Amino acid sequence: MKKVFLLLLPLLLLACSPSQPSRSEGEVLPLRYAELLRIEEADSFCRVEVGDPWKKGRTLATYVLVPAGRALPQSLPEGTLVRTPLRRTALLSAVHAALWLDLGRGEAVAALADTAYVVSPRVRQLCRGGAAALGSSLSPDLEVLRAQRCDAVFVSPFEQAGHGTLDRLGIPLVECADYLETSPLGRAEWMRFYGRLLGCADRADSLFEAVARRYEAEKERAAAAKSPRPTVFCDMLLQSVWYQPGGASTMGRILTDAGADYLWADRPESGSLALNLEAVFARGREADLWLIKYGTPQTLTYEQLAADCPAYRRFRAFEREKVFACNTLEVPFYEEVPFHPDLLLRSLAALFHPELAGPAAPRFYVPLGHAARH
Q1: What pLDDT, on the 0 to 100 scale, is given for residue 160?
Q2: Which of 142, 165, 253, 371 is within CB 3.0–4.6 Å of 301 for a Cys-Cys bond?
Q3: Which fold does the domain 227-367 belong to in CATH?
Q4: What value does the mean pLDDT take over residues 176-182?
Q5: How is the chain split into domains, by residue range?
Q6: Which helix (H) or strand (E) holds 27?
Q7: Is the dihedral of CA 40, 47, 53, 243 positive or negative?
Protein backbone atom coordinates (compact mmCIF):
# COMPACT_ATOMS: atom_id res chain seq x y z
CA MET A 1 0.00 0.00 0.00
CA LYS A 2 2.86 2.30 0.89
CA LYS A 3 4.47 1.70 -2.53
CA VAL A 4 1.23 2.55 -4.33
CA PHE A 5 0.93 5.78 -2.36
CA LEU A 6 4.48 6.79 -3.25
CA LEU A 7 3.79 6.13 -6.92
CA LEU A 8 0.66 8.27 -6.84
CA LEU A 9 2.19 11.10 -4.82
CA PRO A 10 3.61 13.06 -7.82
CA LEU A 11 0.22 12.93 -9.55
CA LEU A 12 -1.54 14.14 -6.41
CA LEU A 13 0.90 17.03 -6.00
CA LEU A 14 0.43 18.01 -9.66
CA ALA A 15 -3.34 17.93 -9.28
CA CYS A 16 -3.16 20.20 -6.23
CA SER A 17 -0.75 22.71 -7.80
CA PRO A 18 -2.12 25.99 -9.32
CA SER A 19 -3.39 25.38 -12.85
CA GLN A 20 -1.49 26.93 -15.74
CA PRO A 21 -3.48 29.23 -18.05
CA SER A 22 -4.69 27.18 -21.00
CA ARG A 23 -4.91 28.38 -24.57
CA SER A 24 -8.66 27.73 -24.40
CA GLU A 25 -8.87 30.54 -21.83
CA GLY A 26 -6.84 32.92 -23.96
CA GLU A 27 -3.49 34.61 -23.48
CA VAL A 28 -2.95 38.33 -23.95
CA LEU A 29 -0.50 39.07 -26.74
CA PRO A 30 2.14 41.50 -25.44
CA LEU A 31 2.06 44.69 -27.53
CA ARG A 32 5.04 47.01 -27.27
CA TYR A 33 3.75 50.29 -28.66
CA ALA A 34 0.05 50.25 -29.64
CA GLU A 35 -2.18 51.75 -26.95
CA LEU A 36 -5.57 51.24 -28.60
CA LEU A 37 -5.33 47.48 -29.12
CA ARG A 38 -5.71 44.43 -26.89
CA ILE A 39 -5.27 41.02 -28.52
CA GLU A 40 -6.14 37.83 -26.67
CA GLU A 41 -5.33 34.52 -28.36
CA ALA A 42 -6.78 31.11 -27.58
CA ASP A 43 -6.71 27.77 -29.38
CA SER A 44 -10.13 28.22 -30.95
CA PHE A 45 -10.45 32.02 -31.31
CA CYS A 46 -8.69 35.37 -31.13
CA ARG A 47 -10.41 38.24 -29.32
CA VAL A 48 -9.43 41.81 -30.19
CA GLU A 49 -10.52 44.97 -28.39
CA VAL A 50 -10.14 48.37 -30.04
CA GLY A 51 -9.96 51.10 -27.43
CA ASP A 52 -12.00 54.28 -27.73
CA PRO A 53 -9.49 57.03 -28.62
CA TRP A 54 -11.79 59.74 -27.23
CA LYS A 55 -12.89 58.07 -23.98
CA LYS A 56 -9.97 56.50 -22.17
CA GLY A 57 -10.80 53.17 -20.62
CA ARG A 58 -13.75 52.48 -22.91
CA THR A 59 -13.94 50.04 -25.81
CA LEU A 60 -14.80 51.21 -29.32
CA ALA A 61 -15.26 47.73 -30.82
CA THR A 62 -14.61 44.07 -30.01
CA TYR A 63 -13.94 41.33 -32.56
CA VAL A 64 -13.87 37.58 -32.14
CA LEU A 65 -11.81 35.92 -34.87
CA VAL A 66 -12.57 32.26 -35.57
CA PRO A 67 -10.98 30.24 -38.41
CA ALA A 68 -13.52 29.60 -41.16
CA GLY A 69 -13.11 25.82 -41.14
CA ARG A 70 -13.64 25.44 -37.41
CA ALA A 71 -16.92 24.96 -35.53
CA LEU A 72 -17.84 27.84 -33.28
CA PRO A 73 -16.69 27.24 -29.68
CA GLN A 74 -19.49 26.81 -27.13
CA SER A 75 -18.06 29.51 -24.86
CA LEU A 76 -17.43 32.16 -27.50
CA PRO A 77 -16.80 35.62 -26.00
CA GLU A 78 -18.98 38.59 -26.92
CA GLY A 79 -18.00 40.66 -29.94
CA THR A 80 -18.39 40.92 -33.69
CA LEU A 81 -17.76 37.48 -35.17
CA VAL A 82 -15.21 37.47 -38.01
CA ARG A 83 -14.38 34.29 -39.86
CA THR A 84 -10.72 34.23 -40.87
CA PRO A 85 -8.83 34.51 -43.06
CA LEU A 86 -10.70 37.34 -44.72
CA ARG A 87 -10.63 36.72 -48.47
CA ARG A 88 -12.51 39.70 -49.92
CA THR A 89 -12.02 42.99 -48.09
CA ALA A 90 -13.28 46.49 -48.89
CA LEU A 91 -10.81 49.21 -47.93
CA LEU A 92 -11.60 52.89 -47.55
CA SER A 93 -7.91 53.84 -47.50
CA ALA A 94 -5.00 53.02 -49.79
CA VAL A 95 -2.83 52.94 -46.66
CA HIS A 96 -4.21 49.51 -45.88
CA ALA A 97 -4.03 48.33 -49.48
CA ALA A 98 -0.27 48.97 -49.40
CA LEU A 99 -0.01 46.98 -46.17
CA TRP A 100 -2.01 44.09 -47.64
CA LEU A 101 0.61 43.93 -50.41
CA ASP A 102 3.43 43.91 -47.85
CA LEU A 103 1.71 41.01 -46.10
CA GLY A 104 1.39 39.08 -49.35
CA ARG A 105 -2.40 39.38 -49.38
CA GLY A 106 -3.00 41.82 -52.22
CA GLU A 107 -5.56 39.42 -53.70
CA ALA A 108 -7.74 40.05 -50.65
CA VAL A 109 -8.38 43.66 -51.77
CA ALA A 110 -11.76 43.29 -53.50
CA ALA A 111 -12.69 46.99 -53.45
CA LEU A 112 -10.92 50.27 -52.70
CA ALA A 113 -12.15 53.83 -52.18
CA ASP A 114 -10.60 57.06 -53.47
CA THR A 115 -8.74 55.26 -56.25
CA ALA A 116 -8.26 58.53 -58.16
CA TYR A 117 -5.86 59.69 -55.42
CA VAL A 118 -3.69 56.57 -55.29
CA VAL A 119 -0.01 57.44 -55.76
CA SER A 120 1.79 54.16 -55.08
CA PRO A 121 2.55 52.27 -58.33
CA ARG A 122 1.98 48.98 -56.48
CA VAL A 123 -1.49 49.99 -55.34
CA ARG A 124 -2.32 51.40 -58.79
CA GLN A 125 -1.44 48.03 -60.26
CA LEU A 126 -3.76 46.43 -57.72
CA CYS A 127 -6.59 48.62 -58.99
CA ARG A 128 -5.83 47.73 -62.60
CA GLY A 129 -5.66 44.08 -61.63
CA GLY A 130 -9.26 43.84 -60.50
CA ALA A 131 -9.89 45.72 -57.25
CA ALA A 132 -13.22 47.50 -57.78
CA ALA A 133 -13.51 51.27 -57.28
CA LEU A 134 -15.75 52.15 -54.33
CA GLY A 135 -15.99 55.86 -55.11
CA SER A 136 -15.52 58.30 -52.25
CA SER A 137 -14.46 57.02 -48.84
CA LEU A 138 -17.00 59.44 -47.35
CA SER A 139 -19.84 57.83 -49.29
CA PRO A 140 -18.77 54.44 -50.66
CA ASP A 141 -20.84 52.73 -53.36
CA LEU A 142 -23.01 50.13 -51.60
CA GLU A 143 -23.87 48.36 -54.84
CA VAL A 144 -20.20 47.75 -55.52
CA LEU A 145 -19.80 46.37 -52.01
CA ARG A 146 -22.66 43.96 -52.52
CA ALA A 147 -21.51 42.94 -56.00
CA GLN A 148 -18.00 42.21 -54.75
CA ARG A 149 -19.34 39.98 -51.95
CA CYS A 150 -16.99 41.59 -49.45
CA ASP A 151 -16.70 39.80 -46.13
CA ALA A 152 -15.46 42.87 -44.19
CA VAL A 153 -15.20 46.62 -44.65
CA PHE A 154 -12.26 48.49 -43.11
CA VAL A 155 -13.43 51.91 -41.94
CA SER A 156 -11.93 54.90 -40.13
CA PRO A 157 -13.68 55.90 -36.89
CA PHE A 158 -14.53 59.50 -36.09
CA GLU A 159 -15.62 60.94 -32.77
CA GLN A 160 -19.39 60.77 -32.15
CA ALA A 161 -20.05 59.52 -35.67
CA GLY A 162 -21.28 56.25 -37.08
CA HIS A 163 -20.76 54.88 -40.57
CA GLY A 164 -24.15 55.68 -42.09
CA THR A 165 -25.58 53.04 -44.38
CA LEU A 166 -22.52 50.83 -43.89
CA ASP A 167 -23.79 50.07 -40.39
CA ARG A 168 -26.83 48.37 -41.92
CA LEU A 169 -25.02 46.23 -44.50
CA GLY A 170 -24.73 43.18 -42.30
CA ILE A 171 -21.00 42.98 -43.03
CA PRO A 172 -18.41 43.27 -40.24
CA LEU A 173 -16.95 46.77 -40.04
CA VAL A 174 -13.35 46.80 -38.84
CA GLU A 175 -12.60 50.04 -36.99
CA CYS A 176 -9.17 51.15 -38.21
CA ALA A 177 -8.24 53.38 -35.29
CA ASP A 178 -4.54 52.92 -36.13
CA TYR A 179 -4.36 56.51 -37.38
CA LEU A 180 -5.28 57.70 -33.87
CA GLU A 181 -2.24 56.12 -32.23
CA THR A 182 0.16 58.80 -31.00
CA SER A 183 3.47 57.06 -31.67
CA PRO A 184 4.89 56.00 -35.05
CA LEU A 185 5.47 52.41 -33.95
CA GLY A 186 2.12 52.35 -32.16
CA ARG A 187 0.35 52.76 -35.48
CA ALA A 188 2.67 50.35 -37.27
CA GLU A 189 1.98 47.66 -34.65
CA TRP A 190 -1.63 47.47 -35.83
CA MET A 191 -0.35 45.30 -38.68
CA ARG A 192 -0.33 42.48 -36.12
CA PHE A 193 -4.14 42.78 -35.79
CA TYR A 194 -4.62 42.99 -39.54
CA GLY A 195 -2.35 40.01 -40.07
CA ARG A 196 -4.59 37.92 -37.82
CA LEU A 197 -7.64 38.99 -39.82
CA LEU A 198 -5.92 38.04 -43.07
CA GLY A 199 -4.53 34.73 -41.86
CA CYS A 200 -0.87 35.76 -41.92
CA ALA A 201 -0.14 36.50 -38.26
CA ASP A 202 3.42 35.17 -38.34
CA ARG A 203 4.32 37.27 -41.36
CA ALA A 204 2.77 40.38 -39.80
CA ASP A 205 4.60 39.84 -36.51
CA SER A 206 7.89 39.35 -38.34
CA LEU A 207 7.39 42.43 -40.51
CA PHE A 208 6.56 44.58 -37.51
CA GLU A 209 9.60 43.39 -35.57
CA ALA A 210 11.80 44.32 -38.53
CA VAL A 211 10.21 47.79 -38.78
CA ALA A 212 10.54 48.41 -35.03
CA ARG A 213 14.16 47.21 -35.00
CA ARG A 214 15.13 49.51 -37.86
CA TYR A 215 13.26 52.46 -36.33
CA GLU A 216 14.96 52.12 -32.96
CA ALA A 217 18.37 51.69 -34.62
CA GLU A 218 17.88 54.84 -36.74
CA LYS A 219 16.70 56.75 -33.67
CA GLU A 220 19.92 55.80 -31.85
CA ARG A 221 22.06 56.81 -34.85
CA ALA A 222 20.34 60.21 -35.01
CA ALA A 223 20.78 60.78 -31.27
CA ALA A 224 24.51 60.05 -31.59
CA ALA A 225 25.08 62.30 -34.63
CA LYS A 226 27.98 64.72 -34.33
CA SER A 227 26.37 67.63 -36.19
CA PRO A 228 24.15 70.09 -34.27
CA ARG A 229 20.42 69.37 -34.07
CA PRO A 230 18.70 71.73 -36.56
CA THR A 231 15.59 73.67 -35.59
CA VAL A 232 12.64 72.70 -37.79
CA PHE A 233 9.07 73.76 -38.57
CA CYS A 234 6.53 72.45 -41.07
CA ASP A 235 4.08 73.15 -43.89
CA MET A 236 2.34 76.36 -45.03
CA LEU A 237 -0.63 78.61 -44.50
CA LEU A 238 -3.91 77.07 -45.54
CA GLN A 239 -6.12 80.09 -46.10
CA SER A 240 -5.53 81.86 -42.76
CA VAL A 241 -4.50 78.83 -40.67
CA TRP A 242 -1.02 77.33 -40.39
CA TYR A 243 -1.10 73.78 -39.06
CA GLN A 244 1.87 72.38 -37.19
CA PRO A 245 2.13 68.82 -35.83
CA GLY A 246 1.57 68.61 -32.08
CA GLY A 247 4.60 67.59 -30.07
CA ALA A 248 2.94 64.28 -29.14
CA SER A 249 1.73 63.56 -32.68
CA THR A 250 3.23 60.89 -34.89
CA MET A 251 4.98 63.46 -37.11
CA GLY A 252 6.12 65.52 -34.14
CA ARG A 253 7.74 62.46 -32.58
CA ILE A 254 9.40 61.37 -35.82
CA LEU A 255 10.98 64.82 -36.23
CA THR A 256 12.42 64.61 -32.72
CA ASP A 257 13.52 60.99 -33.12
CA ALA A 258 15.26 61.90 -36.39
CA GLY A 259 17.51 64.33 -34.55
CA ALA A 260 15.80 67.70 -34.97
CA ASP A 261 14.78 70.31 -32.45
CA TYR A 262 11.18 70.55 -33.57
CA LEU A 263 9.87 73.97 -32.56
CA TRP A 264 6.56 72.70 -31.16
CA ALA A 265 7.93 69.57 -29.48
CA ASP A 266 6.92 71.08 -26.13
CA ARG A 267 3.23 70.99 -27.01
CA PRO A 268 1.31 67.96 -25.62
CA GLU A 269 -1.23 67.72 -28.44
CA SER A 270 -1.35 64.45 -30.40
CA GLY A 271 -3.06 66.14 -33.35
CA SER A 272 -2.34 69.31 -35.31
CA LEU A 273 -2.02 72.80 -33.87
CA ALA A 274 -4.07 75.47 -35.65
CA LEU A 275 -1.87 78.59 -35.63
CA ASN A 276 -1.74 81.88 -37.49
CA LEU A 277 1.12 83.41 -39.47
CA GLU A 278 2.24 85.57 -36.56
CA ALA A 279 2.53 82.62 -34.17
CA VAL A 280 4.59 80.57 -36.62
CA PHE A 281 6.78 83.53 -37.49
CA ALA A 282 7.48 84.23 -33.81
CA ARG A 283 8.95 80.76 -33.34
CA GLY A 284 10.08 79.89 -36.84
CA ARG A 285 11.72 83.07 -38.09
CA GLU A 286 15.26 81.86 -37.27
CA ALA A 287 14.66 78.13 -37.83
CA ASP A 288 17.32 76.21 -39.74
CA LEU A 289 14.99 74.07 -41.87
CA TRP A 290 11.47 74.27 -43.25
CA LEU A 291 9.65 71.09 -44.31
CA ILE A 292 6.60 71.31 -46.57
CA LYS A 293 4.13 68.62 -47.63
CA TYR A 294 1.86 69.60 -50.51
CA GLY A 295 -0.15 67.97 -53.24
CA THR A 296 -0.42 69.80 -56.56
CA PRO A 297 0.18 68.85 -60.22
CA GLN A 298 2.78 71.63 -60.42
CA THR A 299 6.09 71.36 -58.60
CA LEU A 300 6.36 73.95 -55.84
CA THR A 301 9.15 76.53 -56.23
CA TYR A 302 10.57 79.40 -54.20
CA GLU A 303 8.90 81.82 -56.60
CA GLN A 304 5.48 80.18 -56.13
CA LEU A 305 5.94 80.09 -52.37
CA ALA A 306 6.71 83.83 -52.25
CA ALA A 307 3.81 84.62 -54.59
CA ASP A 308 1.39 82.73 -52.34
CA CYS A 309 2.53 84.67 -49.26
CA PRO A 310 5.21 87.39 -49.49
CA ALA A 311 5.83 87.05 -45.72
CA TYR A 312 7.47 83.69 -46.37
CA ARG A 313 10.52 85.57 -47.65
CA ARG A 314 11.23 86.77 -44.11
CA PHE A 315 11.94 83.27 -42.76
CA ARG A 316 15.63 82.47 -42.54
CA ALA A 317 15.07 79.02 -44.03
CA PHE A 318 13.62 80.73 -47.13
CA GLU A 319 16.43 83.31 -47.27
CA ARG A 320 19.10 80.59 -47.06
CA GLU A 321 17.21 78.21 -49.34
CA LYS A 322 16.80 75.53 -46.69
CA VAL A 323 13.26 74.58 -47.65
CA PHE A 324 12.56 70.90 -48.39
CA ALA A 325 9.29 69.72 -49.92
CA CYS A 326 7.37 66.51 -50.50
CA ASN A 327 4.75 66.45 -53.26
CA THR A 328 2.28 63.81 -52.08
CA LEU A 329 0.81 63.54 -55.58
CA GLU A 330 4.15 62.16 -56.77
CA VAL A 331 5.57 60.49 -53.66
CA PRO A 332 3.51 57.78 -51.88
CA PHE A 333 4.05 59.42 -48.50
CA TYR A 334 0.64 58.60 -47.05
CA GLU A 335 0.72 55.03 -48.35
CA GLU A 336 4.23 54.12 -47.18
CA VAL A 337 4.88 55.98 -43.95
CA PRO A 338 2.05 54.81 -41.62
CA PHE A 339 3.26 51.19 -41.45
CA HIS A 340 6.90 51.92 -42.32
CA PRO A 341 7.81 54.95 -40.17
CA ASP A 342 11.40 53.73 -40.22
CA LEU A 343 11.65 54.82 -43.87
CA LEU A 344 10.68 58.41 -43.05
CA LEU A 345 12.87 58.44 -39.95
CA ARG A 346 15.91 57.33 -41.93
CA SER A 347 15.27 59.88 -44.67
CA LEU A 348 14.81 62.76 -42.22
CA ALA A 349 17.82 61.77 -40.13
CA ALA A 350 19.96 61.97 -43.28
CA LEU A 351 18.49 65.40 -44.04
CA PHE A 352 19.06 66.73 -40.52
CA HIS A 353 22.52 65.16 -40.18
CA PRO A 354 24.22 64.84 -43.60
CA GLU A 355 26.97 62.62 -42.19
CA LEU A 356 24.29 59.92 -41.75
CA ALA A 357 23.24 60.06 -45.41
CA GLY A 358 24.05 57.12 -47.65
CA PRO A 359 24.28 57.01 -51.45
CA ALA A 360 20.50 56.64 -51.94
CA ALA A 361 18.52 59.65 -53.16
CA PRO A 362 16.15 61.35 -50.70
CA ARG A 363 12.98 59.29 -50.43
CA PHE A 364 10.41 61.88 -49.36
CA TYR A 365 11.61 65.48 -48.92
CA VAL A 366 13.80 67.08 -51.60
CA PRO A 367 15.32 70.58 -51.78
CA LEU A 368 12.87 73.16 -53.08
CA GLY A 369 13.89 74.48 -56.48
CA HIS A 370 13.39 77.62 -58.58
CA ALA A 371 11.07 78.22 -61.47
CA ALA A 372 12.62 77.72 -64.89
CA ARG A 373 13.71 80.96 -66.53
CA HIS A 374 12.95 81.54 -70.18
Answers
A1: 79
A2: 371
A3: Rossmann fold (3.40.50)
A4: 94
A5: 27-212, 227-367
A6: strand 27-28
A7: positive
